[in-house]
Please model this.
Amino acid sequence: MNTKAANSGSGQTQSGRPARLSLADWMPKIVMAPTVLVTLVCIYGYMIWTAVLSFTGSRMLPSYNFVGFDQYERLFNNDRWMVALSNLGIFGGLFIAICLFLGVTLAIFLDQKIRAEGAIRTIYLYPMAISFIVTGTAWKWLLNPTNGLEKMMIDFGFENFKFDWLINPDMVIYCLVIAAVWQASGFVMALFLAGLRGVDGDLIKAAHLDGASTFTTYRRIILPSLKPVFFSALVVLSHIAIKSFDLVAALTNGGPGYASDLPANFMYTYTFTRSQIGLGSASAMVMLGCVLAILVPYLYSELRGKRHE
Amino acid sequence: MKKIAFGLTTVALSLAAATAQAGEVEVLHWWTSGGEAAAINVLKEEMVDAGHTWKDFAVAGGGGESAMTVLKSRAISGNPPSAAQIKGPTIQEWGDLGFLTNLDDVAEANDWDVILPQVVSNTMKYDGHYVAAPVNVHRVNWMWANPEVFRKSGASIPTTWEQFIVEAKKIKAAGFTPLAHGGQNWQDATLFEAIALAKGTRFYNSAFIGLSDKTLRSQDMIDVFDTFKQMREFVDPGFSGRDWNIATSMVINGDAAMQIMGDWAKGEFTAAGKKAGIDYVCYPAPGTSGSFTFNIDSLAMFKVDGKEKQTAQKDLARLILEPKFQETFNLNKGSIPVRLNMPREKFDTCAHSSMDAFLASSTTGNLVPSMAHGMAVNSMVQGAIFDVVTNFFNDESMTSKEAVDKLARAVKASM
Model:
């Protein structure tokens, strides 16, 4: 570092050198400072503010009359919130499981040195490039019973074909799963494909020499070594599931009734359209809790892993 | 040389005179669609003619959700606009927080108490003082019908909900969708409120303004839910989440026979080149011909600093209720003027009948605020009612008795 600065400043006077050196020392800190500040204020600051608001009786505007855990009590007595929470359970669970399964399967298939791999990979990965709003709108048309899939099948001659999940309060949540899986499984595939390519070739050759079949090699050797990839995928997917808002807004708008509400939509509705900032903040804190429940064990295992190295 | 100097002085003097009283108004609104933008432009031009500067603060988004979010953040940071599109009980909420300014002098100088029906002027007042100026009146309890579909299916226009069910069955048998509907909570509520209104304005007021527990649990309310549930079989399977204007286009295209929707639907018919009374007809929603559920847009005035700004704000309030603006704005918007006894030649037949009903109902006490459009109750109670109504409409297993019970409990919990 010092020699570099000295070299580049060879034309400068002697007295200029110490100042330049200290500037160079300070540079990284100066460059990083705004980002750190913005992150501290705009992410952690507002997080704390939301936490404070969730203990107040704020309605239309934030106010600071503290009411203890009242808002949380109201929240968990709210029928709609319970629907949203259980929806998150169903949606999150299925979405993550199906995405992981499909992603791994696709990645393994693509890993077989097939022809036109690049093209196929792009096809599967492409949905990720589309926003959830577009995905939601497209699937809304596809799943609409009067002009989507159902109509197509009836036009093909299957008179009794019925596919009305989108308007069925019991099934609508699975529509969200379908659309979200369609969007995100390509991304999981890409993650795993990158992981698979990183596995040491010698290891695989050794396994083959030992007489292991391709299936066994994947099951016993390659996939277990992809644990970090698996965890990354899991964390990203659960984030997507918990913060999922735009997909619901575009695909079902929480309907029919509020059968397909997710916590993020609940939070938005109560905070911004129903003037219940306190209640909305409480729901936001519960969502934060969900994220932490996944993130903390992950970070813990990551950091502990690092120490062992 | 002297002449030029004289000319310059005159220009300078007149400029000074203009700037002395000229102020700036910043108006937050969500009239961003074609007709709406044209409508608000009229006001803008009038303000400029009066020597003021108009700072447009339009935030797109149908029901104004995003606009309200922006307004809240501006208000918190101590920098609210001069005027904002706020309506109904929300005016009271803002008043409670102490943000609104007093317009009594403008109102008195321009006889607002005389030219506005009392139900309207009451919503414009906070604590007995005017704080907002009404822009237009929408009638919500309208039924839009396609006469061609009725002719083809041999049905007649229903005037009661019992009759509606009889006729709708005929229409359905003929292969048309009887009721064009979009399954969004406010549309469900619009339909629900029209059915409730058929039980009479006394019942309506007691249920949706008084929020009386007894009325909410009454047999009448159970009947309302029963009728409401029956509508479920008259909508097509694709209704869920459909936008209101798509539903209107079903009536325009002749796929559906009727739609229960406020008079903003007229804009869709007009845009499709249809003529009132020929290609489409408008009737009051069944059983509600003597009543009028209103949805009034208004501009609430915020406290602003500076004499010029305040003058400009007062001018804005005055201009909103001038006959000229009322006429041009409402012709563009599809609604009717809030002022009584306005010249009406330029309006179409649906607007005429709306004006008649407005005038008549304002004297008989049958002019009621629309619950579905946030005129009757605050957003929290409204949301609670929406949840129950829309869930009931979509949940096939819920009985009317359960719904009534849920409604009463939800309303109580949100008060």
Summary: Chain B is about 55% helix and 15% strand. The first strand of chain B starts at residue 24 and ends at 29. The two ends of chain B are 75 Å apart (CA to CA).
